[in-house]
Amino acid sequence: MRLETKLIQAGVGRDEKTGAVSFPVYYATAYRHPALGQSTGFDYTRTANPTRTVLEEAIAEAESGDAGFACASGMAAVHTVMGLFSQGDHLIVSLDLYGGTYRLFEQVLSRYGLSFTYVDLRDLEAVHNALRAETKAIFVETPTNPLMQITDLRQIAGLAKQHGLLTIVDNTFMTPYCQRPLELGADIVLHSATKYLGGHNDVLAGLIVTKGEELSEKIRFLHNSIGAVLGPQDSWLLVRGMKTLALRMERHQTNALAVAKKLQEHPAVAEVFYPGLQEHPGHAIQASQASGYSGMVSFRVRSAEQVGLFLQNLRIVSFAESLGGVESLCTYPATQTHADIPLEVREYVGVCDRLLRLSVGIEHPEDLIADLFQALDASLVVGGAAR
Ligand SMILES: *Cc1c(COP(=O)(O)O)cnc(C)c1O
User: Any idea which residues bear N6-(pyridoxal phosphate)lysine here (predicted)?
Assistant: First the structure.
């Protein structure tokens, strides 16, 4: 079966008693044992829940992994994976990282004795220079958020293997429809399923997929021990969202390419970042390791004064945090997703106060472009970017 079919078949007919096509929501927290020493496979819902199991098996298969784990949020998924590491351990991390992950690493996990070095993972020499005796893993986001820089996953996973390190990939922006890091040598993939996998801006969830039995058992232990698991209703919502992933991603990317090309033409726009553009510096690597470019587009306007007017004039695109849903959203990383990253760090990586990030939805592309253009036109009333 291809990915589209696998996702649609998730849970279909698996409730044998009823033959339900849509797998039911099992709210039960406790399950009767047939006899002493026996189990139906379900004992207590934190450890395993039937609805969550359907979801976990679906994402494991979609990512070509051996086991899947559903968590209460993307951050819970990151935190659960970080449970693999112990006091004194060191990780090498993508420089231009999701702000919440940076906050977890720097303001929470650093207090437990973990340390992190943020490196531009496109620069192998910089990665080599960051290696220490205590380094245990490389944590990758590609494309990075929000600058859409592309890391060569085969190269990083190869380097990690050479040095006995784990490769952990946050695949939120790409989804298994566009990119499957475990097939490229990574050991663990995680997702904020709140984004494309859920797809409708209505469920908070995280997913982890592991390769290999030993690692899968370690994460199974942590998932159950930490207990930041996904509830049954949200598991059901996520399965239902994932069934249309392929269709949605196709539309997200054709819309994103159309928007990215058009934005380049507007005089209020200084720079556009989308890996699907031929001239994007990571375009060739992306084409070699992924089957698509997803729907995230960032751009810089010409002056920071334009930002307020632009956002205020958007009508179809919502000025809101998050991404990956059918509705288009626009984020201002400097004050929203990346507010917890110190100013010097933000500016160094290029998340300046002229940068905006679009999650291009699946509306009609002409409607989106018209909305963005009228808001950009309005933004030119002030600022130094006269037409
Ligand atoms: C949103 C996001 C997260 C955090 O996920 P939540 O579901 O909000 O907890 C992690 N990584 C990336 C790339 C994200 O976009």
Answer: 195
Alpha helices in 184-304 (DSSP H): 213-226, 232-242, 245-263, 283-289
Q: What is the pTM of this model?
A: 0.96
Q: Are residues 50 and 37 part of one domain? A: yes
* Residues 221 and 227: beta-carbon distance below 8 Å: no
Give 337's pLDDT tier (boundaries 50, 70, 90): confident
- 98 is annotated as an active-site residue: yes
Tell whether 14 and 60 lie within a shared domain: yes
Same domain, 90 and 152: yes
CA 152 vs. chain centroid, Å, equals 17
Q: What is the CB < 6 Å shell around ligand 1?
A: 73-75, 98, 100-101, 141, 145, 170, 172, 192, 194-195, 204, 206
**H/E segment holding residue 138:** strand 135-141
Report the CATH number that the domain containing residue 283 is assigned in CATH.
3.90.1150.10
Rounded to the nearest angstrom, the distance between the alpha carbon of 240 and the centre of ligand 1 is 20
Residues 219 and 290 reside in one and the same domain: no
DSSP 41-54: S-SBTTT--HHHHH
Residue from 139, 140, 169, 172 whose mutation best tests the ligand 1 pocket (most atoms within 8 A of CB): 172
Q: Which of 52, 122, 195, 240 is catalytic?
A: 195
74 Cα–ligand 1 center, Å: 5
Kindly report the protein residue whose alpha carbon is nearest to atom 9 of ligand 1.
74
Residue 369 has a CB neighbour count (10 Å cut-off) of 18
Range of the domain at 193: 3-242
Q: Which of 98, 337, 357 to mutate to test the pocket of ligand 1 (most atoms within 8 A of CB)?
A: 98
Let me know whether 234 and 346 are in one domain.
no
Is residue 384 one of the residues assigned to a domain? no
* pLDDT tens string 254-311: 999 999 999 999 999 999 999 999 999 999 999 999 999 999 999 999 999 999 999 9
